[in-house]
Amino acid sequence: MGWTGQSLRSGETVRDIIIRSYQGDPAACASCGWHESAHPRIAGSEYAAIYGPRADQPEPHAFAPSVPRYRVLDYAMVALSEVYMAVETIETGAVWAGVCLVRMSRGEVTYKDMSEDMGPGAVRCPKRILDRLTDTSSDDANEWRAACRARLEERSARPTISAGTRVRFAEPLTFSNGDQRDLFELIKGSTFRAVDPDGYVWSQRYTISSWRERPYSVA
């Protein structure tokens, strides 16, 4: 499945868009797909404003809200670029993982929605969502779940990091000012100071987003 782009409406969030892509939109007509606000049979709708009254050519159906087949039970966004969801198939009660890659820029949201049986490469699903999934016979889905569990186990085995701890990343990080460094001292959150091989600590601060997702060791 390819990428889909959509502008944020007034009062709408990225979460609203992503959940709607999985659950469907009950404000869309089940018969023709027109949104309720634009449906030809709704008085004063966008359709009527554009094309005029349809008394001479009435539509063959009235607006009927779409009935969702799926329900999002839990939602988690990781690093502002990946969304993981526990999604229930309402008819059967089966719960599976939805994985959505997200890009955001100036009110425009571009996303790629997938299910776990499509073998997504993103494997940063939180434990609470994995724990809600029901058994599946899909080999691809089970491999994806195993990869997510393995990542969680690897992270839990890492030493506790606190302010003042020195961290060495497996590969040097390149910053917008051209600096390339691999050794840092944590200040707090995602803020670090660079450390030279001789132990000198620089006053300049570096922000390393999602740094816990990178391979590192305590120096």
Rg, Cα atoms, Å: 24 Å
| Inertia-based shape | elongated
- The total count of strands amounts to 10
User: What fraction of the residues are assigned to beta strands by DSSP?
Assistant: 25-35%
On the 0 to 100 scale, the average pLDDT is: 87
Short description, anyone?
This protein has 219 residues and is an alpha+beta fold. It contains four helices and ten strands.
Write up what this structure looks like.
- The chain is of the alpha+beta class and 219 residues long.
- Helices cover 17% and strands 33% of the residues.
- The chain contains 4 helices and 10 strands; from the N terminus they run βααββββααβββββ.
- The chain has helices spanning 14-23, 46-51, 127-130, 139-156, and strands at 4-7, 70-78, 82-89, 95-105, 108-115, 166-174, 180-188, 191-195, 201-207, 216-218.
- The strands form 2 sheets. Strands 1-5-4-3-2 form a 5-stranded antiparallel sheet, with helices on one face. The protein has a 5-stranded antiparallel sheet with strand order 9-8-7-6-10, with no helix packed on it.
- β4 (95-105) and β5 (108-115) form a beta hairpin.
- The model has no long low-confidence stretch (mean pLDDT 87).
